[in-house]
Each structure stands twice: as C-alpha cells, then as structure tokens.
Amino acid sequence: MASQSMTVSPPPAPAPTQFTTLGEVYETAPRMLSPEAWAYLDGGAGAEETLADNLRAFQRWRLRPRCLAGVVTPSTATQFLGMPLAAPILTAPIGSDILFHPDGQCATVRAAARRGIVPVVSEASHWPLETVAACADGPKVMQLHAWGGRDEFLALVERAERAGFSAICVTIDCPTLGWRERIMRRRFTPRDDAWTGNCVGPPGAAAAAAARLSGGRGSEWTWETLADARPAIGLPVMVKGVLTAEDAEAAVAAGVDAVVVSNHGGRQLDGVPATLDQLPEVLEAGRGRVAVALDGGIRRGTDVLKALALGADVVLVGRAAAMGLAAAGEPGVAAVLRLLVEELERSMLLAGRADLREIDRSLVRRSAD
Ligand SMILES: Cc1cc2nc3c(=O)[nH]c(=O)nc-3n(C[C@H](O)[C@H](O)[C@H](O)COP(=O)(O)O)c2cc1C
Predict the structure, then answer these.
(1) What is the pLDDT of residue 10?
(2) Running DSSP on this structure, what letter comes out for residue 4?
(3) Does the CA dihedral 79-81-84-85 come out positive or negative?
(4) Which residue, judged by its Cα, is nearest atom 11 of ligand 1?
(5) Which ligand 1 atom is nearest residue 319's CA?
(6) Residues labelled catalytic
(7) Per residue in 224-260, is it b (16+ CB within 10 Å) or e — as a string?
(8) For the chain, what is the radius of gyration of the CA atoms?
(9) Which end of the chain is more exposed for a tag (fewer CB within 10 A), N or C?
(10) What's the mean pLDDT in 15-21?
C-alpha cells in the first residue's frame, strides 16, 4: 500500500565544502544555471555522437589490478613541459565561463593553483589574460586559437609571456565554431562581454579581434603558419585538437612540444571518434618525440587512470571543472579537483600502482562488449 511516508524528496544541494562525490557536483551544476547556459556547457555539436562516444569509450576498458603490491601511499606527482604537477591533470580552456559563475576563470585558476594543478586559460575570456594570470601564483598555460594574422597571434603570445604564463596551447580544431544544435535551438550565443576580454587595442583592432574570435569565418592557418611562428615563441607549445597520425606528424615537424588528443569535447566536428580511441594512433605517430595529453569525457579518477594506462602523459578536464564552477564557484572547482585526485590515488592503491611510472598498458584490457 502506497503511503505518504514513502515519498522521498531529493536531497538539498550540499554546501561546496561538503561535496563528497563528483556525482553531487555534476547534479548540482544544471540546477544553478539557466537552461541556455547549461545547454552551452553541456552540449556538443550535431547529433552529439562524438560527445556521447567520448564518455562511452572509457566504459570499453576495464582495469587489471595487481594485488599484494605493497603500496601504501601512491604518488600522483609528475612534470609536464617542465611544469611540476601534483597530479597528471590540467584544467582545459573554457571560453565564456563567466556565464557559469561571476568569478569565471579567476575561480578556476585559483582553485587549480591551490591544488598544484595547472590551468589552461582560454583566450575567450571575460578578463584580459594579464588579470587572469594575476589571480594566483603557480604555472599556467595560455590557450590561443590558430587564426588571425601572424603578428596578431605573436602579440598575444608576447602578452602571455610577459604575464608569466609557462606554456602556450594552440587550439587547432576550431577554424569556425561547430554546428552546436543545443544552443541553436535556444537561439543562444554567449553575450559579448563573456569572451572579448583579450580583444584589446585601438577601436578598429579590438573590433577586428572580436570579429575573429567570434569564430564564424574560417582560418587561413596551415601547419606552415605554425612552423613559421614557432621560433618566435619563447615558451613550450602544445597544440590541442590532434586526432590523426597525419596531424601528429605535422605537429612534430612544426616543432611543438606536446599534442592534446582532443575533439573539443564533441563540440566541433561531430562524428569524429572518441579521443580515447584515437590515442594509440597519435602515440604511435609521435613515437616519443612529443608529449601527449588527452581530453574528452574525463569525469572521474578511474577515467584518468585508464587514459594514463593507454599512454597519455596527462589529461585535461573540461566540463568536470566547469560543472564545479557552475555548482559553487572556486570551492566547486576545488571540490572537483580534490575528488578527482583522491579517487585517482585510491584507485592507484587498489590497482597496486605506487606511482605514475607503474601505470602502463598492462593495467587495462578492452572489455568484451
Ligand atoms: C563550455 C565550454 C567552453 C569551451 N571553450 C573552449 C575554448 O575557449 N578553447 C578551447 O580550446 N577549448 C574550449 N573548450 C573545449 C575544452 O577545452 C575541452 O577540449 C573539452 O571540454 C574536453 O572535453 P570534456 O568537457 O568532456 O572534458 C570548451 C569546452 C566547453 C565545455
């Protein structure tokens, strides 16, 4: 017999310091946002096949733990492009993130720095990169797009160098914005002040930079453009958006230091494979000549473990950190990073791996289905 006492109301959203699981953060985020902002955060391109596959790809791998390995305190510390990292995790560049919380990138940069995690700061920011850099000490990477003229691009690089960034990340999969139906249905585009903070200069130049960054126009960049600019960049360079052996080879030839196997979280060309599935192809082509990062679909510590086991040096987390920001600002991002690292540590201990060098291909097997 049904009775009123059996009706259970959903628990209230926990205070940010009380988030005990990543799931609580991910459930809180949409509740804090307008439907438009949530569609912008959560959505992908086209039929969202790639977005879904990024997540499914992690389910296709199972862990092969070793027991009685004598592990007591696993270490997640590592280095990437000369930067010390407390864990093999960077926050991915998220444009227009002031739509999720008024503290936007500053909150993410501060939360990451406190945890010894390196943030990759988006060019499409409410604040100029100098302001974001000043939010916290600690290494940071500046993300720029592969578009615009060489001089304009190098002027941004120079600003980033002067502001103290430790590396440059060039996003190469965004010659124009993806066909993002979830926001198109809502007739939504981020408001201008959410992403034009770096479009500075005299009125004409600032307007031209904003027109370029609005992303509706294609890009004349080729791998030669990057190779030509590379000697003028005094910092390590990573390129984000590599999915094929051909582009990995081209990146090496252009003199980059790291590639990010990325499909922009399924927000650009829908129908491309999951990043985890493309990782072996890129690793094989890079053959130790370039560091390899991966993003797309990382939602928990065991996802990080699987990506490392399949050969990634580090991972970037996009929506996971953005959902923390939406859920509770800086403490929300801090909670996500804390929980990702703690789950990674716990999983390493359970898998019998004392440090990151012990995480290799023997830790995973492809699932039967
Ligand atoms: C709301 C949002 C904004 C993004 N903005 C940028 C950006 O400005 N530059 C960029 O290179 N990538 C951008 N990305 C892509 C992320 O850097 C990253 O590649 C992607 O989120 C990884 O997938 P994940 O969200 O499943 O972790 C954005 C992603 C999201 C969700």
Answers:
(1) 60
(2) G
(3) negative
(4) 171
(5) 25
(6) 264
(7) ebbeebeeebebbbbbbbbbebebbbbbbebebbbbb
(8) 20
(9) N
(10) 82
Q: Which of 36, 91, 94, 176 to mutate to test the pocket of ligand 1 (most atoms within 8 A of CB)?
A: 94
Residue 261 φ then ψ, to 5°: -70, 110
Model pLDDT for residues 282-329, shown as the tens digit of each residue: 999 998 999 999 999 999 999 999 999 999 999 999 999 999 999 999
Q: Supply the pLDDT for residue 214.
A: 78
Measured in angstroms, how far is the CA atom of residue 268 from the centroid of ligand 1? Answer: 10
Atom of ligand 1 nearest to the CA of 93: 17
Q: Please tell me the residue having the least CA distance from ligand 1 atom 4.
A: 94
**What separation in Å is there between the alpha carbon of 351 and the centre of ligand 1?**
30
What's the 265 CA to ligand 1 centre distance in angstroms?
A: 6
Note the pLDDT of residue 210.
83
**What local confidence, expressed as pLDDT, does residue 212 receive?**
76
Element (H, E) at 30: helix 22-32
Residue 170: pLDDT over 60 = yes
Q: Are strands 118-121 and 89-91 parallel, antiparallel or unpaired?
A: parallel
Asked if 263 contacts 50 with a C-beta cutoff of 8 angstroms, the reply is yes
First to last CA, the chain: 41
Tell me, in angstroms, the distance from the centre of ligand 1 to residue 264's CA.
Answer: 5
Residues with CB under 6 A from ligand 1: 40-41, 54, 92-95, 122, 124, 143, 171, 240, 262, 264-265, 267, 295-298, 317-320, 322
Does residue 2 register a pLDDT over 50? no
| E strand or H helix that includes residue 317 | strand 314-317
pLDDT single digits (tens) 135-162 = 999 999 999 999 888 999 999 999 999 9
How does 77-103 read in b/e, with b if 16+ C-beta sit within 10 Å? ebebbebebbbbbbbbbbbbbbbbbeb
